[in-house]
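Reopening this one. Same input as before:
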Amino acid sequence: MEKVASKEFSFQCLEGLEALASSYDTFIVDLWGVIHDGYQAFEGVSTALARLQEQGKTVVFLSNSPRRFFSLEKQLSDLGIMRTLYERVYSSGEDAYNALTQDHRGKMCYPLAAAAHADLLDDLGSQVTYDVKEADFLLNTGPYPLLIEDHEALLAQCMTLDLPMICVNPDMSVITRGVEILCAGSLAARYKELGGRVSYHGKPFEAIYTRLWEILGKPDKSRMIATGDSLNTDVQGGAHFGIDTILVMSGLEGNALGARPGEIPTQDRLAGHFAQKGIAPTFVLPQFNW
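Same output, byte for byte:
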C-alpha cells in the first residue's frame, strides 16, 4: 500500500507481515492486543508465527504483563500458541522479579495486585507484607478490577509514609472482548499526581529493551522490529530503542479509532491520530497476520 508522509510523520499501511518480513530478522512482539485479547488468540496468529519461523526469523514476546515468563508460556499454550513458534517470553513481571531479588533483598513490599499475579508474589514470598506500615515500598502489578477511587485512601496513607512505588505494568489500560480495562499504569499515574515516587518495569522504558537485546546476543538493531497495539508503550518504546515498529489495529489504538476487525482506518484518520499522540509507527497492519 501507499506510504503516507505528513509534515511530522511517515508511515506505511500493509495488509500483513509478508510484505516486510524479508527486511527483518528479529521480531519483538507484544502479547495482549496483538496475539490475544486475554481470552482467545486472534485469527491468523499461529499461521503468521509459523511463516516467520519458516523464514528463519527470531520471534520474542515482550509483554507488560506482571506475570512471570512460565505463567505466560502456559497461557499461550492454553490459547493454542505452540511453544515451538517463538524463541522466548520476557515480561515486565520477569524483569521486576530479577531486579527485586537482586536489588531489594531483605526489603518488604506491600502488593497492589490481582489474584492472577500470584506467581510473582509467591516467588517473592519472604518479601511480601500486607501491613502497609511494615512496607519499604509498594509493588503495583494492578488490582483487578481496578477503580482508582477505591485506592485513594491507601495512596494518601502511603504518601504520608513516603513509600516509593514500583509499577510492574506501565500500561494504562488494555482491551479485552471490546471492553477497556484499567491497568497498573493508571494507579501509578494517580500516585504520581499525588506527589508519590514511582519507578517502572516494562515498555516504553528503554531498560527492558536493552536487557532483552543483551539476552538475545545484541542482534543488529537495523534488522529488528517491534510490534504492538499501543502507541504510548509499544511504538514509543521501540522508537526510543532505535528500531522500526508495527502498530496493529486489533487492540488499544484500533479501539480508539473505531477500527473494525481486519480493517485499517483511513490514512487521513491515522495521520490525525498519530499527530495528536505525537508519534507514528513505521508500519500499520490490521492485525498480526501473514
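So the earlier flakiness isn't reproducible anymore. For the record, DSSP finds ten helices and 14 strands in the chain.
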